[in-house]
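Q: Second attempt. The first request was missing the SMILES, so the protein and flavin mononucleotide are both included now.
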Amino acid sequence: MKAAVFYYSQSGQALKAAESICGSMSAVFKEIVPQQHYPFPWSRKEFFQVFPESRLGIPPSGIEPLDFSDIADADIVIVSGQSWFLSPSLPLQSFFGDEGVKEYLKGRSIVFVNSCRNMWLMTSRKVKEYVKLAGATLVGHIVLQDRASNLVSAVTIIRWLMKGKKEATSLLPAAGVSGEDLKGASRFGKVMENKWKEGDFSGLQTALLAEGAIRYKPSVLTIEKTGHRIFGFWARFIRKKGGFADGKRQGRLTLFYWYLLFVLFALSPLVQLFFWITYPLRRVKHNREIDCNV
Ligand SMILES: Cc1cc2nc3c(=O)[nH]c(=O)nc-3n(C[C@H](O)[C@H](O)[C@H](O)COP(=O)(O)O)c2cc1C
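A: Got both inputs this time. The predicted holo structure:
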C-alpha cells in the first residue's frame, strides 16, 4: 500500500503521529507550507491574532505549490494536522482550499489524523465538509490527544505554545500527546494496510475505532460545542474592526483573551460538573456514534 501524507506541524507532533502510523508502509511525505508564516512559540498577541480567521474559515494566505507527480498512484491519502480555536488549523484550511489539492483529492480515500489538546469535534465536522467539497471520501478519522484533565492540559499547553516548554515539571505533566500514544499510533497503520489488502476501505473507521482511534470524552465535547457557537460571535465581533493583522482590532482581541481565560479556568469545570449531574438525560451513546463516524 502506498500512502500520500500531507502534514503541517509546528512542534513536530503531527509529523511524528503520521510517521508512526505509516511505520513500514510505503509513504511519501509532503509538507504543507502556508504562505503566511505562523510562529512557534507564539507571543500572546500572535496567538490571538489567528483566532477570528481560524474560527470563521478565512485563512489569510494560500500554501506553497505542492508536487503531486510522485503520488499519483497513492492508494490512500493521510492528512495529519491539528485544531486551532476549535477549527482546523489555518494551514489545514489553506490546504483544503487550494485548487490543485482539491483536484488531487478528487475521488480519493482520505484519513484525517488530528493531534490536538482535547477538542477535536468541530474540526472533524469542518474537515468532513472539506473532503466532501473536494469530491473525496473520508474513510478514517484518528484523534491523538493530551491524556491530562481539561484544566491541567490547559495550563501545560499554554506553557508549551507560549514558552516552548513541553517537558514535565515537579507539578505538571509534559504537554501534548504522550510519546507512548504517538508510538502506539503505529497500530492504526496496520489496520489501514489490512483493509487495503481486503480491497476495500469502507469498514476502515469501524476497525480503527475498535483499536481506540478516538478516546471519546463527552463532557469536554459539550464544552467544545457551546464554545464553538460563542467563538463564532466573538470572531465576527472582532472582524468588524478589521481583517487579519489589522491593528484596529487589538482591543477586541484583548477582551477575547480575558474571556477565554475566564472560560478555561472558571466556567469549564462548572460546565463539566453540570454535564455529569445531568448525565442520565444525555444521549451520549447516540452522539458518540455520530461524532466518531466518518
Ligand atoms: C493557535 C492555536 C490554537 C489551538 N486551539 C486548539 C483547540 O481549539 N483544540 C485543541 O484540542 N488544541 C488546540 N491547539 C493545540 C494544537 O491542536 C496542537 O496540539 C499543538 O499546537 C501542537 O501542534 P503541532 O503539531 O503544530 O506542533 C491550539 C494550538 C494553537 C497554536
